Amino acid sequence: MPNNSTKTTKKEFSFQLSSNTPGIDAAWYVINTYSGHEYKVIDALKTRIKTMGLEDHIFRAIIPIQSKMVIRRGAKVKTQEKTLPGYVLIQMIVTDDSWVTVRTTPGVTGFVGIGSKPTPISQSEIDNIIKTTEEDKPKYQAPFGIGDVVKITNGPFTDFIGTIDSIDQEKGKLRCLVSFFERETPVELDFLQVTKEL
């Protein structure tokens, strides 16, 4: 029987940078960061906003992430993966002071926009990103591709070698063509039931 145990690691994706309510002038912007520094940038921003007294100008940040199901050591592991590595969404009112504070935060390389001017993104784009991030229906991350040769490790076809014909990322299943009585037979398997042949 495959090991169907699922472990979960949970990361925050939305951060309050200020306890103040965003004004009507507040909009969402995208800042570029060094890859892997997204959470450090959030921590630095929280400190700088207080130090600079900008609680009325910079309100919230989001690191877009998505749930993924990966196979590790024969177990399904639910993880969160950044969907836009190196980017942070920030809700703020752009003034000279707020722009400079964010722009000069360690780890930030700049704002996304036309020329040197930050370009706001629409609320509908933000709503879609939040919806995708909050969804708890993780997609499977297949450790193999179509055409890969795999060995079946569980079920009636244990120890048979087959070729992957199709992959269903949503369900974590694949179809494998197995040579059986000198005929290629399609067999549907769980990701946990196969290992990649080198």
Walk me through this protein's architecture.
This protein has 198 residues and is of the alpha+beta class. The chain has two domains: 6-140, NusG, N-terminal domain (Alpha-Beta Plaits), CATH 3.30.70; 149-196, Roll (SH3 type barrels). 18% of the residues lie in helices and 41% in strands. It has three helices and 16 strands. The chain has helices spanning 38-52, 96-103, 123-134, and strands at 6-8, 14-16, 27-33, 58-62, 65-72, 75-82, 87-92, 108-111, 113-114, 117-118, 139-140, 149-152, 161-168, 173-180, 183-190, 194-196. The protein has a five-stranded antiparallel beta sheet with strand order 2-4-7-3-8. It has a five-stranded antiparallel beta sheet with strand order 15-14-13-12-16, with no helix packed on it. A four-stranded mixed beta sheet has the order 1-6-5-11. The chain is elongated. It starts with 5 loop residues before the first strand and ends with a strand. The relative contact order is 0.18.
